[in-house]
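The data are set out underneath:

___
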Amino acid sequence: MFITLLLGGARSGKSMRAEALAKDLNLPVCYVATAPHIKEDQAWEDRIAKHQSRRPDYWTWIEEPLDLVMVLQGHSNAQVLLIDCLTLWLSNLMFAEKNVEYEIKTFCKALMECQGEVILVSNEVGMGLVPETDLGRTFRDEQGRLNQAVAKVAHRVEFIAAGLPIRLK
């Protein structure tokens, strides 16, 4: 078991780095996408399609916006799980009014029980301006807590800036 967490800002190259690491392993990959489809938002759908087009045909994939624990438990023997991204997962949890603290704790426990490689993508949102709204500030704080919890159990943590990885752990 080896857990890699990739952090960075928007359009920093996190997903491409995750995909490159997964390809370099030369093992079967299961790509787990947390982005919900929003048919009314063509730009969002185009972004999802762009991500999908980069995945090799031989990779399997799952779209799961909420229950990552179920995915981890159901695929704990997978050789490589690539989860993109924890930030969208967190926002999905918050909008579904889930207990975020419980979900993060349960997720980290399930993560540590995986047998193969797990590569996780997450945004670093705490380095910018303070959000104007209570919801925005709550999200920023929960994202920071999520990243800390996952980084604690991860074997490797990288910060991606301008497409370049900086090893943190």
Summary: The chain has one domain: 2-167. The longest strand covers residues 2-8. The chain has a mean pLDDT of 92.
